[in-house]
Amino acid sequence: MDTAVSTSNVPATSPWLRIKHWLTHLSLRQVFVLVVAVGLLAPGVIFTLLMLEWRRHELTLQFRAEQERVLETLALGLRQPLWDLSLNAGQPLVDTAMKDARIVSVQVDGTFPGEPFIAVNLPERRQGVVTHLSRPVHFGDQVIGKVTITFDDGDLRRRLAAQGREYVLLIGVMLVVSLLLILLLLDSRFLVPLRRLSEQARALTNHEAPPGTVWTREDEIGDLGRQLEWARGELHRLFGELNDKNEALEQDIVERVQTEEALRASEAKYRELFISNLDGICVVDMDGRVQDANPAMLALLGVPSAALVGRPMGQFVAEDWRSYDDHMMQHRVLVDGHCNEYEIELYRPSAGLLPVSAKGVLMRDVDGRAIGIWRILRDLTERKAAAQRMELAAKVFDNTAEAIMVIAPDNRITSVNRAFTDILGYHADEIVGQPSSVLRDPSVETRVYEEINANYTNGGAWQGEVPFRRKSGGVFTAWAQINVVRDVTGRIGDVVLLIRDISDAKAAQERILHLARFDALTVLPNRAYFRELAEEAIAEAHRHGVHRALLFVDLDHFKTINDSLGHDVGDQLLKEVASRLNDALRAGDAVGRLGGDEFVILLRNLDSGEDASYVASRVLERLARPFVVDEHELVVTPSLGIALYPEDGEDYDTLVRNADAAMYHAKEHGRNTFRFYTADMNARAREILAVENQLRRALERDEFVLHYQPQVAMSSGAIVGVEALIRWRHPERGLIGPMQFIPIAEERGLIGDIGEWVLREACRQNRAWQDEGLPPIEVAVNLSAMQFYRRDLAEDITGILKETGLDARWLALEVTESVIVQDVESTIATLAALKAMGLKLAIDDFGTGYSSLSYLKRFKVDKLKVDRSFVMDIPGDADDSAITRAVVNLARNLGLQVIAEGVETPEQWSFLKQEGCDEVQGYLVSPPLPAIDLANRLARGAWTLQG
Ligand SMILES: Nc1nc2c(ncn2[C@@H]2O[C@@H]3COP(=O)(O)O[C@H]4[C@@H](O)[C@H](n5cnc6c(=O)[nH]c(N)nc65)O[C@@H]4COP(=O)(O)O[C@H]3[C@H]2O)c(=O)[nH]1
User: Fold this and answer.
1) Which of 371, 536, 658, 730 is the most buried (most CB within 10 A)?
2) Does the model's pTM come out above 0.80?
3) 525 and 617, same structural domain?
4) What number is the ipTM of this complex?
């Protein structure tokens, strides 16, 4: 750097100085190259020049000799030709000489004047310096001519130049080889070691890490290197030691500073701890005087620092506790170095006593000598209040009526109250520590409990019904309120369960639900619930594309039984019917009660409509057997209507409506049967409804009229009685027969009033005929089941007879066989009562019902009426003839009269007469006639079979 500066200051004027400056800045390698180059080049050049000069001289001499020799030769050779002046002889000699390229010209002159004898000149050979040499030609002693040769030294010069180039090349090669060898030597012997020395020296100056240089050479450089390496190693070691000492010193200083800082921080921290501690802390000396107190202690005692510091601590301990506190300090703290927490009361000058927990720790100096006591006091007011609350909570826990159970996070039961042991039957010792799962109802899927667990774990609280298992194994449903207690970090701690046994409430709820769904009497699904079931089944059928059937079941004449035998009997009967209906069904089918005597059956397993008819038949069959209720043997037949899903309706209401219509149809067709719904039934159902409405007003409007059909004695042909048959003079439809409205009136409960009207009118008319002076006859009146089973039937009839003035013996009552067998015992009693009044009694439609012959004997009837259905086909039909014959014989054997109805032909008449029938009634004698016509007929006298 300094050199460079000085370089720039060198005046550029002096070339010598510039060269000197340049030389001083050359590197060692450059200097060596320069020295070797100059050292080798200068002698080489001088040697070359000397050699060249020597060579030129030698070649010049050699050239001169050759010139002399050529000249001599030619002069000798031309002596004769010149003498002879023979050009032919001289010319070849000259030409031979001219073959030498260095000869430019040859001229042979004779001594005679004129032209040279021979002259040959080749000027183009002239390239260098030319030399003219001449020699006389002697012949003997005579000079006869002269030979002159011109020589060119171009060849000589060329040879000299070539020689020079060879020398230069030789010297160049020598120089390069020498330089290379020298540089190689220089590099390996000097420059590389020097560089290493230089690096060593640099490492030495920079106190760098030891390079680990090893010098093996034994020359001066190696020696120097080793010395340097040793010096560097020593220096490094010394620096290392210095550094270590330095670092140790620094570390020492840092540690000391840190210790001081830590001490300061610790002091500050402990001071802060002391100041900010919520517990009252004070330092008392060995005399018990307060040295220092934290704000909490001042607050605890309610005094300022000045009032406490320097005062004996004992002054602030309640008198009662002073000696105890003193004892703890003297015998615990001073002896053991500390004491456990104990309770005392502080005396606060301005606020009275305060319960505190106290603690003491002995303070020692560095030599372990006791120098004071740390006194730590904690307000116990809150803790005591909490303890009281805990005590209260424990009392509540123990005395509450609900079972309480606490479950730890590991699902083990940690505590239970008394109610728990009462309700679940476990003693606390038995259940505490057990997993809560022991209380699970084993029949309930674990999943249910897992869901409950998840609910309260996620929500923090949950309440609902949980099934539990008592120790006894019994299970019950409890209403559980579950609360999760979390710690301050939000982690789930204990789980508290309040368990209330709701089995009773649940049972009550189930009963209510049952009541809401099931008919209380028959325990069948009620109207609403059956609808639910049916709608469900319909929806299911809709989904699966299958069939269903709805059967509407109505009991024939149930109202009669209910009204006559009382509701208790009716209820019992319905229960029995329900039970038999249930029995008639297959699994999966259902029966419900719509109300009264109406039942519905839902058939689920249905392949076709035929299946429904099988079930309907089975129902008919099951209900056909008499029911025994309270000693009454009752026969109840049902009428069934069947509607199919989806053909007859796609919803429940439509299906019920259509099944109902079909049921009416069944009733119209003689009851105790079933009918499938057909589209026109609804029209019929509407018509029935219309009829019912009109019927209700028909009595008021006096639209009924009685026709009378004569009954004649077969023996005499005399009219012995008439059957009163009702007709309805409908304002629009004209005269309507009883079959079109009596079943409806019976079904809708209208028959009572109508029947009473018929009775009254028939009695009135009969009395009127008698009053007219016509021969007295019996008037037979049909009694519906409902009328027949009315409790006050006898009373009513007595009243009517009295009212109309008809003697009882002129009134006959016809009751169908199916009615009287409904309740045999009642029938017997009723018939006896009627009989006692002096009335005549006939069993209508005899042979169609199921009357047992034993009953027949007990029924005090006067007459059996062979049903028209048998009479119709006699005498042609053997069966009907046999039945008719049997009935006639039976009547005779029992001492009863027998009358055949529906007699239309003389053959029937003859047959009946032959069999011994007493009376006949039928178109053969007369159709039913208005009263006036009948009177005329009566007046005409006896009827005889024409022809
Ligand atoms: N084919 C045919 N029929 C004959 C012949 N002789 C009479 N009849 C009909 O047979 C029915 C006889 O009455 P029933 O068997 O008591 O059957 C009666 C009876 O059960 C009921 N009925 C009629 N009036 C009353 C009534 O005032 N009260 C009650 N409860 N039922 C009545 O209506 C049923 C039908 O009465 P009606 O239509 O008047 O039909 C009458 C009568 O017109 C005959 O030779 N051939």
Assistant:
1) 658
2) no
3) yes
4) 0.94
